[in-house]
Every structure is written in structure tokens, then in C-alpha cells.
Amino acid sequence: MKTDRLSVIVWNEYQHERENPAVRAIYPEGLHQCIADGLRDTPSALPGARPLTLGTATLDEPEHGLSEERLEACDVLVWWGHKAHAKVDDAVVERVQRHVLAGMGLVVLHSGHFSKIFRRLLGTNCSLKWREAAEKERLWVVEPSHPIAAGLPEHFELANEEMYGERFDVPTPESTVFISWFEGGEVFRSGLCWQRGHGRLFYFQPGHETYPTYYDPNVRRVLANAVQWAAPRVRIADRCPRVEPLETLSVKAGTFGSAGIVQRAEDLQ
User: Fold this and answer.
1) Distance between CA atoms of residues 107 and 98, nearest Å
2) What are the distances in angstroms from CA 101 to CA 54, 80, 98, 117, 262?
3) pLDDT per position as a tens digit, 163-204
4) Count of domains observed in the chain
5) Residue 35: how many CB atoms within 10 A of its CB?
6) Predicted TM-score (pTM) of this structure
7) Beta bridge pairs of residue 137
């Protein structure tokens, strides 16, 4: 499905910014607003990229800002979470999952690897190694032909980031766009793509709340490309209907019961 504009919702817990003055100093209007500003101000490098209609949602809003009506109209959901994964209502998680499986795109950021929705869609623990020591991170573009890598250099660096290290307990991705090296020596698959149902899913590692990562122009370009890549191609609600045959079925001497067991005609009389 394709319309003139992409509807994007940036979801954020919005907890750190209100509780920690150091985080609030970096993201005074919240991580969600900074990410949304970056999407608004940074053009995607993809040919034919569509303009965005941007909205935000946070944990403390009714239904976490993710009502059925908002998700029905949403093309791509961007998710940032960290300290309040357990507070996300299971009913909302199931709602988001249903829309992803029907075709809505999902971009999961940084500590969102432990979010309920990410773990549910991938079916693994999504665990990893970590260390917060303001390390330099060098992100290598290992799939330069991938749409999410459009317009990026061969590699780029972030002066300070939280280290995430392998092993990252996720299913084998369909594409690995970025691999990161950290100052302490670890490496990490930091940009991964999957498809779940009819929806596309992208995970991007940088984005710890105490560093100004979401102001970085390369990070903003990644996210601008990612929402275009993740945009729905179809929206098909999941169904499991019983259907009639397209062709006339031949008459058989015996019939099959509902459990697939052959029954003799005389036993059915």
C-alpha cells in the first residue's frame, strides 16, 4: 500500500528525561521529540522517499498513546525503551504485534532490545553484553547496497556510547547493515533487519540516554532511511478462514474425518 505521506509515531517511555537532570539537559523535550525532530529535518537518501506525518507517544498516556485508531493509521512505529519495559501493558504489546504482522513497520532503538514487543516478535531472550563507559563507537556499513545505508560513508563514529557486545541473542537477521566496534574491543551487530508477517523490523543499537546520539547527522540519516524502508507494502489483517475448493473435488470411496483419519463408507451409515 502506498500513499502520498508516511505516518510515523515515535514512542518513548519518557522516564529518564523527567527524573534525571543530566538526561533532561541533553533531551529537554524528551528523546521522542529529538528523534521526531531528526526525522523531520533530515531527508532520506532513498529515491522516491515520501514526506512524513510525525507524531509521538509516551508510556504515561492512556493506552501508552497507542490506541487501535492510532495504530490503524500508523505506517511505521519507532520504539525507544529502557527502564520501564515491564510497565508496558500486554494488551498494547499484542495490539502492536498484530499491526506489525499485518504490515506496519517497526524500528526498535537501543535498549528496546529488551522491550516486550521486540522479544515477542523475535521469540528469543534478546540478551547481550553491555558496559556504560562513554566509549568511542565506530559503526561499519557492511551492506552498502541496503536502502538503510543510502547516503552514508563506509563508516562513522560516535564519540561516546554505551557498549553493546556479542553474543546478541536474536534470530539470524535477514540483513546485517551495520557492525560496530567499541573502544574496549567488543564488536556488535548494530543494525539488523527482519520480516515478521507482512511487516518489516529494523533494530539499531546506538542511542543511550546520557549521550547526544540522536543529534548526530549520520544517526539521523539512518533513521530517516529506516522509516522509508520499513513502510508497509501491504496491510493484511491476520485471518485463518475455512474456504471452499476452487475446483470440483472427486468423490472418493472413503472419507476423511476431521482428524484426517480415513473412514469406510459403511461405517458412516
Assistant:
1) 15
2) 22, 20, 5, 12, 36
3) 999 999 999 999 999 999 999 999 999 999 999 999 999 999
4) 1
5) 27
6) 0.92
7) 158, 182
